[in-house]
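Example record

The entry below shows one chain as it appears in the dataset: sequence first, then structure tokens.
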Amino acid sequence: MRALVIEDDAALREQVVRFLAEDGFAVDAAADGNQGAYMAEEYPTDIAVIDLGLPGVPGIDIIRRARASGRKYPVLILTARDGWQSKVEGLEAGADDYLVKPFHREEFLARVRALLRRSGGWASAQLVSGPYVVDLGAKTVAADGKPVELTSYEFRVLEHLLTRAGKVVSKTELTEHLYPENEERDSNVIEVFIRRLRAKLDPNGQYNPITTLRGAGYRWDLPRS
């Protein structure tokens, strides 16, 4: 998953970026509203964390512009304002949730995970599909009740496919959502991750959870439970 953080307070921005990176996200960050508005509209993003009180373009306007341009990823507002008016304004602008500063790491990550689950149509932190149980919080995977050991990048690929179950995900999309903007990318590595996932999740070829669509990408094909 790839997150965008727009926060002008350097210490808080670094803290939020660290929280997300430690939880397995690729993270892009902006220090002001002007840069943030561009990134919110142009960068491939799974979730955005946006401060309301930004220099340049205000956070409310960033959200409105992103929604107007067709961006549908969930948005979590960070605000020092505890009044109900600013929260309502943010939600009406297109945000999905808000968190008042200061906040605890656990609550922040729980809200982020909940927004991502809901955006993918999942109600629980445990994603169950066929014989597989994937816990997004604990970062664990089980197949037929037995644990499956994945690397962090293998887990990211699985999470991206599973939260978009039934939809075709291109190799380019997977690459963009695995790595932050300033990190070197190699789309050929995706084929390696897919091959490893198949070998670990379905060593006997019994379930065939991941389908390759030549020239289009990959699709998680097992039903949700």
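Notes for this example: The chain has two domains: 2-119, 126-220. The chain has a mean pLDDT of 91.
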